[in-house]
Amino acid sequence: EVLGGTPVITGTRIPAARISEMMLQGFNDQSLKREFGNVSVKTLRGAMHELTTLGIQRIEESRLEPTKTRT
Fold this sequence. Notes:
This protein has 71 residues and is mainly α. Helices cover 56% and strands 6% of the residues. Strand 1 and strand 2 form a beta hairpin.
C-alpha cells in the first residue's frame, strides 16, 4: 500500500523503508514484533520477504542494464 506517496506495510502506516533499514541494522522478525507490537509476525515476515525479493530483483535488473560509457 502507499500512504502519501510512501510505500507502507499493508494495513499499517509503517513505511516499508523503515522495515528495510531495521533489517539492515540486524532486526529480525521477533525484534520487529517488539518494536511494532500491533503488527503480526506473519505480516512482518511477509513484508521482509517482499523487501528481500524486491532487492534481489533490483540487483538482477542492474546486472542486465548495459554499462554506460562516457563519450
